[in-house]
Amino acid sequence: MVKYSDDELDAIFSALSDRTRRHVLASLAEGERQVTELAGEHEMSLPGFMKHLRVLQDAGLIARSKEGRVVSCELSAQPMRHAAAWMSHYEKFWTERLDSLGRYLYQQEELQRWSPPSPKKRRRLSPSSAVRARRKGTSPPRRNR
Asked: What pLDDT shows up at residue 141?
């Protein structure tokens, strides 16, 4: 398994847990963009948006550059490879388990052909047996009006 820091993974998954930040990464996948362009796609203040960029930058998912007064961002996909490697390890585990469960269920279906249960018929009590059942206390008492 790939060697990486738990703190790095925590930062990556924390950054990816937010919809706004995932949208920013998707936008940057198309190429470098200015911060004002990216912020314009979201209904929030520029300082609020900058906090999202800070989280992405701290996780190593974006790189910012500044030319004069213009700040641009570009995607840095290397940290996502670490997260993908971590998830692929567990994907293999669960795929094997689910395949095994599928084989077991198929085998059980072949061994016992399933047929839908027949609807239960309700027994009707004759008036005299209903009285006897009430005397024995097997049916709930009726409300008096």
From this structure: 58
Give the pLDDT confidence of 127-137 residue by residue, as tens digits: 665 556 555 55
With CA atoms as reference, report the closest residue to 64 among 38, 26, 30: 38
Strand partners, 28: none
- Tens of pLDDT, residue by residue over 83-129, are 888 888 888 888 888 888 888 888 888 777 656 666 766 666 566 65
Task: Judge whether 3 and 35 are in contact, CB under 8 Å.
Answer: no
Cβ-based neighbours of 36, under 8 Å, separated by 6 or more: 46
The token pair that represents 8 in the structure block: 């790095």
Tokens 């689910």 found at: 98
Kindly list the structural domains of the chain, giving each domain's residue range(s) and its CATH number in brackets, ordered by start: 1-113 (1.10.10.10)
